[in-house]
Amino acid sequence: MCTVSFVNNKDVVIITSNRDEKVIRPSALPPKSYTCNGKNVMYPKDPKAGGTWFVIDADGTVLVLLNGGIEKHKVQFSYRKSRGLIALDVICSDSPKDFWKEINLEDIEPFTLVLYQGKKLYELIWDGLIKRKTQLDETQNHIWSSVTLYSDEVRKKRSSWFFNFLKDKKEIAARDMLDFHSNTEGDDSENGLIINRENTLKTLSITQVIIEQNKSVIEYHDLVMAKEFSTAFISI
Q1: Cα-based angle 46, 69, 181 (whole degrees, multiple of 5)
Q2: What string of DSSP letters covers 168-209?
Q3: Is the pTM of this model over 0.90?
Q4: Does the pLDDT of residue 236 top 70, yes or no?
């Protein structure tokens, strides 16, 4: 939910997300299938609010949530609905990229969604006042870091780590991206890819989806429980 990368390697799409969260938050449930609005979706579930930060449907549409919009915001005492439930509202619609125009986000905490739908890539941002939708080049590689946890300078530094990691690779495998998300700047517990800020805020899990032709494989690495889960969607 706080670091997301998108890699397109010869039409194999790899989306990887690190979830940075307060350690007092209950452990997430590993990915499993759910039905919403008649659609089959798969996601790790936050037991506190019932939402998610990473969800995929049977058509290969992927939606990943990051906290914060354009810049770090002041947190209100309460909000109407959790951002993890908003993520489910979006992907459970008939067309997430079009539903973005309709959804009411009043009194919702700012967030960013990375949406891969119909082999197109979108960045959807709610800054607390305005909704933004930007179509990105899905043939290129991208990285996002949450504005609530990382300054602009640190986000630029993390971006440079990402592109330096990829520059000499002729092919990029899912395990390469897992390695990047697991081990980059491992000595930097404040701003590396795996963080541990005074044992109160940590990287709790890494979620990855690999989309190839009619198959989507989701991998989930629970860093707290030291467990791994893998499951797949096959589209007909």
Answers
A1: 60
A2: T-SS--HHHHHHHHHHTTTT-TTTSSS-EETTTEEEEEEEEE
A3: yes
A4: no
